[in-house]
């Protein structure tokens, strides 16, 4: 089969769309995992992106070689059939609750826009269903259209801030500065492993050439790395203001026009949207193995189930659920990185 660059780009944009959730786009993840560690945090960004690249390539390579159709099949190759059966339910629960968090996040966003929570929930459900009806091609096409715009806006915001000469100081130093950044960098590399595994495990039959794997991994890592590096450097210049903003990105645009603020608010909603679509996609492909229904019907049923559950609240869901999955993500990252060596031994 021949190598197709555009196909690699679509895969890479899907990787970015799965990873660049509201936490990343808002700058909160970048600050907590990197910027808060001080001037040496840029090395943490490089380490994290290196691990992320390796994990992405390994997942895509396994999916391509084994022609997997969902995450459970891929897990069986990475951690063994018996252990994969135990993880199957855990990953399914993660995808379900993560999608729930995104749906609730849309409701919270619409509340900030002086609309109702329920309106935001239904808008998200409807928007996700549009992509679900077009299956994997819809997911890849959506990311190919949205992610370049999101990336361009976030990069422009950082570059504009850095070149504007805004009154801000470089890192002033704090008690966390003495802590090494590498443990946090490794943790961040693992942060989205379950979501990434769920989406990329469905792409094995779509990949036409091994070169597409390496190019997709490279482009996605460069996009995420560029945004993370610029974000990290910019946020360190407004370190004294971070505590005043729940969304650090607004500390960079505090003197911008209202048009910029509206644009950025829309970008944050799109970040929630792309992550929700990725999670529901991975969930649908797994659940479809249990029921004899079209994938769009499975997706619709799951989304309708999540509407009443979204009332649990965005902040409450994040506070309780995200730490719960941290150890699982770290375990999966470790096993993925060890997989090529275990395969060589066999």
Automatic annotation (TrEMBL):
Keywords associated with the record: Membrane, Transmembrane, Transmembrane helix
Segments traversing the membrane: 43-64, 90-110, 116-136, 143-162, 182-201, 213-231, 259-284, 296-314, 320-341
Name of the molecule in the record: Transporter
Organism: Paludifilum halophilum
């Amino acid at each position: 089969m021949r190598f197709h660059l555009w196909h690699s780009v679509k895969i890479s944009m899907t990787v970015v769309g799965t990873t660049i959730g509201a936490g990343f786009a808002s700058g909160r993840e970048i600050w907590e995992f990197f910027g808060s560690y001080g001037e040496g945090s840029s090395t943490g960004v490089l380490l994290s992106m290196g691990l992320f690249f390796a994990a992405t390539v390994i997942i895509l390579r396994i999916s391509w070689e084994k022609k997997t159709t969902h995450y459970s099949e891929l897990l069986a190759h990475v951690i063994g059939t018996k252990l994969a059966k135990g993880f199957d339910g855990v990953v399914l629960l993660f995808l379900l609750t993560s999608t729930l968090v995104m749906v609730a996040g849309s409701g919270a966003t619409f509340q900030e826009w002086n609309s109702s929570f329920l309106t935001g929930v239904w808008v998200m459900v409807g928007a996700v269903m549009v992509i679900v009806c077009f299956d994997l091609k819809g997911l890849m096409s959506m990311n190919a259209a949205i992610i370049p715009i999101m990336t361009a806006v976030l990069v422009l915001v950082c570059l504009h801030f850095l070149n504007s000469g805004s009154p801000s100081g470089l890192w002033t130093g704090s008690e966390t500065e003495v802590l090494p950044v590498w443990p946090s960098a490794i943790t961040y590399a693992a942060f989205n492993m379950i979501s990434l595994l769920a989406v990329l495990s469905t792409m094995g039959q779509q990949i036409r050439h091994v070169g597409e794997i390496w190019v997709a991994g490279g482009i996605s890592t460069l996009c995420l790395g560029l945004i993370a590096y610029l974000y990290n450097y910019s946020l360190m210049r407004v370190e004294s203001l971070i505590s005043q903003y729940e969304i650090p990105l607004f500390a960079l645009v505090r003197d911008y026009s209202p048009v910029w603020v509206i644009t950025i608010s829309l970008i944050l909603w799109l970040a929630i949207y792309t992550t929700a679509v990725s999670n529901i996609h991975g969930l649908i492909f797994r659940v479809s193995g249990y029921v004899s229904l079209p994938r769009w019907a499975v997706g619709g049923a799951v989304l309708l189930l999540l509407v009443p559950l979204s009332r649990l609240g965005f902040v409450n869901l994040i506070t309780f659920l995200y730490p719960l999955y941290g150890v699982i993500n770290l375990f999966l990252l470790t096993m993925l990185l060890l997989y090529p060596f275990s395969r060589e031994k066999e």
